Amino acid sequence: MATEETTLEKSIKNFVYSKIQEQVYLEVGKNLTIYIKHRSKHGSIALAMFWLRVMRHQNNYPMPKYSYKELYDQKGNDKIILKVDDITITVFNKTGTLTIQGTMALEWFLNRFLYIMEAYDAPICIPQPQTTIYRQYTENWKKLEVDDKMKKVAEEEKTKEKEEKALEIVQIRNQVITDVRARGDNAEAEKLEKAAKSATNDLAEELELMTFDLWPDSVVESQLKKLQTPCVKDGSTYIYKLWKSLLNYWFKDTNRKVYLVSPFLDADRLVDVCHLIIQNRLTANLDIFYVNQQCNREQRIFEVKQKALKSFDAKDQMFVEYKIYSSIVYPMQKFHCKFIAAIKDEQAEILVTSASFHGDHFTCSNMDTLHFSTMSESEFIEKFLCPIQASANVRK
């Protein structure tokens, strides 16, 4: 399994080594926690003392202006805690591990930590200001959610208008059938009834699927029920919309761990995934995204990631790198299975398809297979994840 070191991670490693000759590594937890740990299993007290000097530096968060609390956990481990900017910074005295926790921990880390390191070497000036930027950011995000709800209401009104027109058409058809029966032609009336029923079902389906780019939750749920029977669908008009809508549905639930698996991936589809996670950044929980090293004809995954990154501004680029790209795993051994899945409450939901997450399948008219199923978490891990993970551990 290959990993790439980010610029910020290199800066942290070089910063620590240049000051105290200790080696550290960065880990981004799935629970929105940032870890900076010592390479040694047992850690280093010197590293803990160093982090406290950095944080308490006059240019950063000096005492007594900022309150540091010393606590002991259940195992008796001594730790120092600083709460600032709506996040919690903890230094474990025994190991030197530094953690950053909070709803906006990742954004704070990406936007502030480099300045904290630079301030440690700078002439004494004004300490790091306390800010409510991340609280404001959350409030702005909530406002966007309200705007989205208003937009959804407007879209629902348009759908209602279409449904009313469809109902009017059905009523006219029913009147025609009644008139035919009144003439005594029951056979013709039955034919018209069958045709009308089929047309009504097709119209209802079209209203559900064609109105939205992202289907409402109720539509997603109704489609998943139908897909418990395997079938063949068009990639561009159905599977692509289902793929995005189902991921959006899962990403809205913080208790769902989401898995994506596709041998082939282009930049546009990676941008889709990133946009969906950014839209649901407070709840999205992408656990693993498996993709082949060479995933877009002659392009390798690194090139696809770099191209996709250009679609975002600087702030979101850092979020994408740490929150999304850190979950991408590219096995050394090739695979060809395609599915998306989610685990919640020890139950797994899986959408298996023959369509790769690529424009060749999602933007061109292609007929591909689909099947939605559920099983226990343990069964899913055994039958779906373990075989791929085994290949991810293969070394050439």
Describe what you observe in this structure.
This protein has 396 residues and is of the alpha+beta class. The protein has 3 domains: 7-131, no CATH class; 141-211; 214-392, Endonuclease, Chain A. Helix content is 50%, strand content 19%. It contains 12 helices and 15 strands. It has helices at 7-20, 45-56, 105-121, 133-182, 186-210, 217-226, 235-251, 267-279, 301-309, 314-324, 359-362, 377-392, and strands spanning 24-28, 34-38, 68-72, 78-84, 87-92, 98-101, 231-234, 257-261, 286-290, 294-296, 299-300, 328-329, 339-344, 347-353, 367-376. β10 and β11 (299-300) form a beta hairpin. α8 packs across α9 (301-309). The mean pLDDT is 82. Residues 146-209 form a coiled coil.
Give the arrangement of secondary structure elements.
Elements: H1 7-20, E1 24-28, E2 34-38, H2 45-56, E3 68-72, E4 78-84, E5 87-92, E6 98-101, H3 105-121, H4 133-182, H5 186-210, H6 217-226, E7 231-234, H7 235-251, E8 257-261, H8 267-279, E9 286-290, E10 294-296, E11 299-300, H9 301-309, H10 314-324, E12 328-329, E13 339-344, E14 347-353, H11 359-362, E15 367-376, H12 377-392
Parallel strand pairs: 8-9, 9-12
Antiparallel strand pairs: 1-2, 2-6, 3-4, 4-5, 5-6, 7-15, 8-13, 10-11, 13-14, 14-15
Helix pairs in contact: 3-10, 4-5, 7-8, 8-9
